[in-house]
Design a protein that fits this description.
The complex is a heterodimer. By secondary structure, chain A is mainly alpha-helical. Chain A has 19 helices and 6 strands. By secondary structure, chain B is mainly beta. Chain B is built from 9 helices and 50 strands. Classes of the chains: A mainly alpha, B mainly beta. At the A-B interface, helix 1, helix 2, helix 4, helix 5 and helix 19 of A face strand 22, strand 25, strand 26, strand 30 and strand 31 of B.
């Protein structure tokens, strides 16, 4: 096979093929994902901050998990559901036999930290560029981070915090659970920056404003028992004149407070927005744009006017219904007596869980029952009722409590309490000192039933063991850190005592 | 006298002119490839004179009588007889004998004779696949190849199959690579017409390393039929028609039994009995399984024509296949049309071109197949006291929010999925120099899928999750997937000094996969009717209109080389090296190298090998190689902002969308690496009648890619659209023994037997998980913790739950046992007793242990082919032993129907030690424990086929070459103790598989068919 015997054609062909083979280089596999953005090139334009802020607000919708579990824990409300083992995590909290292995506590931890992380994403990039309106956006992000951290501290006590920005992989074994005091200072810091930079009135319904931040700060001080500081903040909100009790002005009707007419009304200091236009599924409850709390609170198998059906969780007990005075307008607006309603309106319904401790009571959380509307399926997960996170009535009662407990005026406190009582159609109280404090505690329980505050009020005032059956202080003051988190931290975090 | 002498001499001369001895020469070569046939036999017929061709295929014979007939023969070829003519040189082309070509095995970028294969390879012949004729070609691998385990994702028409080779080696995608005629095929085996398949070869060990980073799950090489040279057009027509029925129905309670147990359950909990009618009035009630199952037809037509001239061969085939569902009939159906064209030709002596074009079109309607809310799930849970025509369950007993009338569900299901796929390949083989040939191959796939799903307005009852009361919904999607492969490789083959055979192949492959999808939904379809169900006619607007899309582009560049060296045809060595670069890996780990080495020793050729009379051939082989798996989602090394950020805002609470982080990034992500070791032995005995292949394998897969790795919630992975990073974090080991034993023999021309028995043992164990102690997965019940785990020291996906120890018979037993309160409720007599496995005096979630795993300990297959005169009989059996299944189709709701084993419930001391009491009070009886884990071992008669081929005199009369009629039963019977529909039911997920949600059972088919050749 001498080379000269091979025709030129073949040599050329062979060489050109070799060149072709060598010509493909590894650049061929260097590809950018088509039509996609990644975080290295983000936060370079003002819209990026806006868009990221929407991401942080998104996690507010997942705080339905906080509300329903707080109600079930409170002792005024039964878990309910289809049977005594439906959503076992909730059932166990109702009986106060919960353990670190609890899907719903784990959801709570995960959802709220996701909110912290998304808010920190914006805050850690605050110095990338400058533009007008940046301070407002960063302030809203700080409020959101403070809100989520406050929720986490209520539920779990000491939590890991990172003021600089997002948690990075690997820090779960190094960042410790900060003490409650450090957490509170961190939240306070975020809220103070927020207060300085937020507009006084909301940019848009549902977005936070300076008063929202002050209300949360006041609440924080109240929980910390720093009563004077609490009173200062809360009275700023009251004196701003931006809010009033719904039903006391114009042609407002108190009965509409929790209806669609009453959404984003003059009583909402902070309201979490929901909508029913997008479908949702059980595989990602935190993705739902609707209020999952509402579908879960609905009456099982309900057919009748005004309301839609649901899963029958969060059932108020007779004890809370009977705690209202007969002529208290709030009673039948907060709690639905299903037997009489069904009789009056020809409605029918099913009963699920019939256990005496955790099951059917004959009452439902009327504030957050599903109303008839045209939301997308799964309709139980996409109810559009907004969650009134901080109401003016709550602010009034918190201010009253701070004044009585602190160095403030009992008379002023009494006046705030009586505003709330008057709207409820009740006579004013004349008490002061300890008696007034008892009145305030009672009003809080009646005014705020079904909204997820009662349990924490009982814990922070040391009354939980008396009011909640199965409650053991101090163990049940906070909830156990999810077992999986203890494992991930590899000894860096120890479990809450008693669990 | 002189006159006679001249006559005599003249006669002699004349005679010898005609019968004069001559010297002739010639060359013998392969009719198809033109390769010279070395050592072919050339003999003069009727004499002992003969010779063999030399290394160039040439021969010469001297003193051959002029009227001789040469007989040229060679193993694997049809013997030819050549009458001598005036010519002195004879160019003889021998055509291959298809039957003996079974000895040649496709091994990836080439083929090898069976004798020289150094790796663990199984081959299934196309004729056998054609006889089995399964709807999904993958089913032909079940029971016919050692080490291959095929399970269907339910028996619904069009369902895909899960193929696992030698155990489960990754917690990600375990599917083996499918190579169709040389190029990577992602379309799934159920889109290939089984009649078009020439052979399927399965590469199980380091032999597959030539495919580098796509080979670690094993490689399935599918070769389709091509034409035949020197053959006039031969038509093959095959048709069958059959009836399918369900292979199993579950034993449920009838109306009376249901009412009895339900009332008892309520009474035991101190509540009022829900059913007030007397049991006599209820009677049998509705048998929902009978209502939902029906007999459904299956049919197929297949026509092909094959033939060729001296230089060209062609094959053209088309098929039509239709299958209705045994549940839902035409609402659950699959139809497939295929057409295939194969054209190959020798353009020049040294240039051969082969082109193939395939077109597939499938159309599929499906029902909600498995899981909470599927049609069968509803049929199992519906109360038998409800009539079959009750569409709306208002006023009926409360069955929870998911259970609806399955017949109504079927009637209201409207969906349609169509796929059109065009694939092709063009291959050019150029023998540009002696001993060297270059192959250039180009393959492409292009598929278009469109989906349409219409959910009408309907009220199934109060609170049902399927209700659409206000608006109907139409969803449509269109997906386009494309890929192309370009291979260039060069082969050098030479024999040195008559002893050393060298075969060196080097090449490169370029692969690109890209595509996009577009989806839209709308509401407001006019008249709530499927006729108008299209986004174009729907009246939804604003927030009722939604659209989304995605696009992808993935590439791979590979270089590879393989060197085979054989010494004296006895000692065979093979080395492979492949370099892959892929877009899927982070920039730090973009390139991978995958080497492997295999060797074989033909022991029986050794001079010191004792000549046992019946042992014809013995080969010992071994190999070790490193392969990869790159089947991970794209761009995991970038923190793409694909998360969901949606809030409601403004006065009208309309949706606003923002941007958020998606899956967390891992810039170091790389392929999974599989190290496979295999030693084996091939034996042939009794005149090649008995073949035995025995293998021991040990595969270790490291750097397992664990997607959405569970990490602390503080990183925000619970946010919508976010998830944990994908990290290379685990190692799993599969090892075991495999053997394939086959026996074939013929007695005369009338009786032939062929049997094959294969056996595989699998020992699967997770050996490392970095960054954690275990991973969880799977689903059991509603709101319960994950039942499956991947944990060091145990098989992947094992079931983690409580161990039970009978039933509490009385209060004393309850008191003597640790409290079970932590599991949900205090125990009562009649409840399940859970074991305190860690001995700490409490029953807590820490008492959960390994209660089974879905991976079989060993599998076996048996096939038998018997020909007796004009009859042929064949059967395939498959068995799996040691696999466990979780029974997860019993809804934990007070009023649903139950299986009739519940009739053996505890009703008082000593009445039952297995089934707990019937009650609606809170109990811990329904948490995940070994009460729900069953032994899924089974033996299935997969196929029984009897055929009759009409004698030639009859088929000639109708102008047919061959006419066969046959009858076949698929899935005749499954021997198993499992109480569910099908012991092979599984999603195929590595963690979370083996859990039965009420899968659509495999149908039993009764088929009658006709095959004609003309």
């Amino acid at each position: 096979m001498l080379l000269k015997n091979i025709p030129m054609k073949k040599i050329v062909l062979g060489l050109s093929l070799l060149i072709f083979v060598g010509a493909c280089s590894d650049d061929f596999v260097d590809v950018q994902p088509p039509y996609a953005i990644n975080s290295e090139t983000f936060f370079e334009a003002p819209e990026d901050y806006d868009n990221a802020l929407i991401g942080a607000y998104d996690l507010l919708q997942a705080t339905y998990a906080n509300t329903i579990l707080a109600e079930i824990a409170s002792g005024d409300v039964n878990a309910g559901g289809e049977s005594p083992t439906d959503v076992i995590g909730w059932q166990q909290v109702d009986r106060m036999i919960h353990t670190p292995i609890n899907d719903n506590l784990r959801d709570l931890w995960n959802f709220n930290f996701a909110g912290v992380q998304r808010a920190s994403f914006i805050i850690q990039n605050e110095d990338n560029i400058d533009f007008e309106g940046k301070a407002q956006i960063i302030a809203e992000a700080r409020f959101l981070r403070a809100y989520f951290n406050f929720e986490l501290s209520k539920w779990f006590g000491p939590i890991p915090i990172k003021p600089d920005g997002q948690f990075e992989l690997g820090e779960e074994v190094s960042i410790p659970r900060a003490s409650i005091d450090e957490v509170y200072r961190f939240i306070e810091g975020d809220l103070q920056i927020a207060i300085e930079n937020l507009s006084v009135m909301s940019v848009e319904p549902g977005r936070v404003n300076q008063m929202t931040a002050r209300a949360l700060l006041g609440k924080l001080y109240l929980y910390e028992e720093n009563f004077d500081a609490a009173a200062t903040q809360l009275q700023e909100v009251i004196n701003s004149g931006q809010y009033h009790l719904y039903g006391t002005q114009g042609d407002e009707d108190f009965a509409d407070l929790f209806e669609f007419e009453g959404e984003n009304g003059p009583e909402s200091v902070f309201e979490v927005q929901y909508t029913g236009v997008q479908g949702a599924g059980f595989d990602c409850l935190q993705c739902s744009e609707g209020n999952v709390l509402v579908g879960f609170s609905g009456i099982r198998g309900y057919v009748g006017p005004v309301f839609e059906s649901g899963f029958g969780f969060g059932l108020p007990r007779a004890s809370i219904y009977e705690a209202f005075e007969e002529n208290d307008l709030r009673r039948d607006l907060s709690i639905l007596n299903i037997e009489s309603w069904a009789e009056e309106n020809g409605a029918t319904f099913n009963i699920g869980n019939q256990d005496p401790e955790t099951g059917h009571t004959g009452y439902y959380n009327r504030k957050y029952l599903p109303r008839m509307n045209d939301n997308q399926p799964d309709v139980n997960l996409t109810q559009p009722n907004n969650y009134r996170a901080i109401r003016y009535a709550d602010v009034l009662l918190m201010a009253a409590e701070a004044l009585v407990q602190g160095s403030g005026s009992d008379m002023q406190a009494q006046e705030y309490v009586n505003q709330v009582r008057e709207r409820a159609g009740l006579d004013p109280v004349m008490s002061s000192g300890q008696a007034l404090l008892e009145d305030i505690y009672r009003e809080r329980r009646l005014e705020l039933v079904g909204e997820g505050h009662t349990f924490f009020d009982l814990v922070r005032t040391g009354r939980a063991a008396d009011e909640i059956s199965g409650f053991t202080a101090p163990k049940n003051n906070i909830f156990p850190i999810p077992q999986e988190e203890i494992q991930f931290a590899r000894g860096n975090w120890t479990q809450n005592p008693g669990y | 006298m002189k006159k006679y002498a001249i006559l005599f001499f003249g006669l002699i001369c004349f005679g010898s002119l005609e019968a004069q001895d001559r010297n002739i020469s010639g060359q013998v070569s392969d009719a198809l490839s033109g390769d010279p046939l070395i050592f072919a036999n050339v003999t003069v017929e009727g004499t002992t004179q003969g010779t063999e061709t030399d290394l160039d295929g040439k021969f010469s014979l001297s003193n051959v009588p002029g009227d001789a007939v040469l007989v040229i023969s060679y193993l694997g070829y049809i013997t030819q007889k050549v009458e001598l003519t005036d010519e002195d040189f004879y160019d003889v082309k021998l055509a291959s004998d298809a039957q003996i070509l079974e000895d040649v095995v496709v091994i990836g970028y080439g083929a090898e004779s069976r004798r020289n294969v150094t790796g663990a390879v199984s081959k299934i012949d196309g004729d056998f696949i054609g006889k089995l004729d399964p709807p999904n070609a993958a089913q032909a691998l079940q029971g016919t190849a050692a080490g291959v385990n095929v399970s269907q994702q339910g028996g619904a028409p069009g369902s895909e199959s899960n193929i696992r080779i030698r155990g489960i080696s990754t917690n990600g995608n375990n599917s083996p690579l499918i190579i169709l005629d040389g190029f990577q095929y992602e379309g799934g085996l159920n889109s290939i017409n089984p009649q078009d398949i020439e052979s399927i070869t399965v590469l199980k060990d380091a032999q597959a390393a030539i495919y580098g980073t796509i080979a670690s799950n094993g490689v399935i090489l599918v070769t389709t039929k091509s034409g035949k040279r020197n053959q006039e057009a031969k038509f093959d027509y095959q048709t069958f028609y059959g009836i399918q029925e369900t292979s199993r129905q579950l034993n449920l309670l009838n109306g009376e039994e249901y009412a009895l147990l339900l009332n008892e359950a309520y009474t035991n909990a101190g509540q009022q009995s829900p059913i007030q009618e007397s049991l006599n009035q209820i009677g049998e009630g509705t048998n929902w399984q009978d209502e939902v199952f029906s007999r459904a037809p299956i049919s197929s037509h297949n026509l092909s024509v094959r033939g060729g001239t001296e230089n060209t061969s062609y094959s053209l085939s088309g098929s039509i296949f239709n299958q209705d569902g045994i549940v839902g009939e035409e609402k659950s159906q699959f139809s497939r049309r295929t057409a295939a064209l194969n054209l190959e030709s020798d353009l020049r002596d040294n240039l051969n071109i082969n082109t193939r074009l395939f077109y597939y079109s499938t159309q599929n309607n499906s029902l909600n197949d498995f899981g909470l809310g599927s049609v069968l799930f509803n049929a199992l849970n519906m109360a038998p006291t409800i009539g079959r025509d009750v569409d709306n369950l208002r006023g009926q007993i409360d069955l929870g929010n998911e259970v609806v009338n399955p017949l109504t569900q079927i009637r209201n299901t409207f969906n349609d999925s169509r796929t059109n796929r065009l694939s092709g390949t063009a291959q050019l083989k150029y023998d540009y120099l002696p001993n060297l040939d270059l192959q250039v191959r180009m393959g492409f796939n292009s598929s278009f899928t469109q989906n349409r799903d219409f959910i009408p307005i309907f009220d199934y009852g109060p609170g049902k999750v399927f209700n659409r009361l206000e608006e109907n919904l139409i969803s449509q999607g269109k997906i386009n997937d494309n890929d192309y492969t370009l291979d260039i490789f060069n082969t050098y083959k030479k024999r040195f000094a008559d002893r050393h055979d060298v075969n060196f192949m080097a090449g490169m492959t370029v692969f690109r996969q890209f595509g996009e999808g577009l989806f839209g939904t709308s509401t407001g379809v006019p008249s709530n009717d499927i006729q108008f169900a299209d986004i174009g006619t729907a009246t939804g607007a604003g927030d009722d209109l939604n659209a989304s899309s995605y696009a992808y582009d993935v590439r791979r560049l590979s270089y590879f080389g393989r060197l085979n060296y054989t010494l004296d045809e006895k000692y065979i060595l093979s080395g492979i090296l492949r370099r892959d670069a892929s877009t899927r890996f982070g920039p730090n780990n973009r390139v991978g190298y995958f080497p492997s080495a295999t060797a074989a020793w033909v022991f029986s050729d050794e001079s010191f090998f004792p000549k046992w009379k019946n042992l014809d051939f013995m080969k010992i082989r071994g190999g070790y190689g490193i392969m990869g798996n790159d089947r991970i989602p794209d761009f995991l090394y970038l923190a793409l902002l694909t998360g969901q950020a949606t809030y409601a805002s403004g006065v009208d609470n309309s949706l606003i969308n923002g941007i958020a982080v998606g899956p967390l990034a891992n810039p170091n992500v790389q392929w999974e690496e599989s190290k496979k070791a295999n030693v084996g032995m091939d034996l042939r005995m009794f005149g090649n009648k008995i073949n035995l292949a025995v293998d021991y394998y040990r595969d270790i897969t490291a750097n397992l890619l664990i997607a959405n790795l569970p990490i602390s919630g503080i990183f925000g992975t619970a946010a919508p659209g976010a998830s944990g990073p994908t990290i290379n974090a685990g190692t799993v080991r599969n090892q075991g023994v495999e053997f394939e034993l086959s026996y074939s023999d013929t007695w005369g021309s009338d009786l032939g037997v062929q049997m094959n028995l294969n056996f595989t043992s699998i020992n699967n164990e997770v050996t490392a998980i970095n960054g954690g102690d275990f991973l969880e997965g799977g689903q059991f019940g509603v709101g319960q913790p994950a039942p499956s785990r991947m944990e060091v020291g145990l098989p992947i996906g094992y079931f983690y739950g409580y161990k039970t120890n009978g039933i509490f018979q009385n209060l004393e037993e309850v008191r003597n046992h640790p409290s079970q309160l932590q599991l949900g409720a205090e125990a009562q007599p009649g409840d399940i007793r859970f074991m305190d496995t860690n001995g700490d005096g409490e029953i807590t979630p820490d008492d959960r242990v390994n209660i089974g795993d879905p991976i079989p300990d060993f599998t076996m297959g048996y096939t038998l082919n018997l020909t007796l005169g004009q009859f042929d009989f064949s059967t395939v059996l498959f068995g799996s032993f040691g696999n466990d299944i979780v029974r997860n189709f019993e809804r934990d709701q007070p009023n649903v129907n139950r299986m009739n084993y519940r009739l053996n419930r505890w009703t008082g001391e000593g009445t039952s030690t297995e089934v707990p009491r019937a009650t609606v009070a809170p109990t811990a009886n329904n948490i995940f424990s070994d009460f729900f884990v069953e032994d899924g071992s089974f033996v299935r008669i997969q196929n029984v086929n009897i055929g009759y081929t009409f004698p030639d005199r009859i088929s000639d009369r109708v102008a047919l070459n061959r006419l066969t009629v046959y009858a076949r039963v698929d899935n005749l019977y499954t021997f198993t103790n499992y109480s569910g529909f099908d012991p092979t039911a599984s999603t195929g997920a590595p963690i979370g598989g083996g859990i039965d949600f009420g899968f659509y059972p495999i149908p039993r088919n009764f088929i009658f068919g006709v095959k004609a050749q003309f």
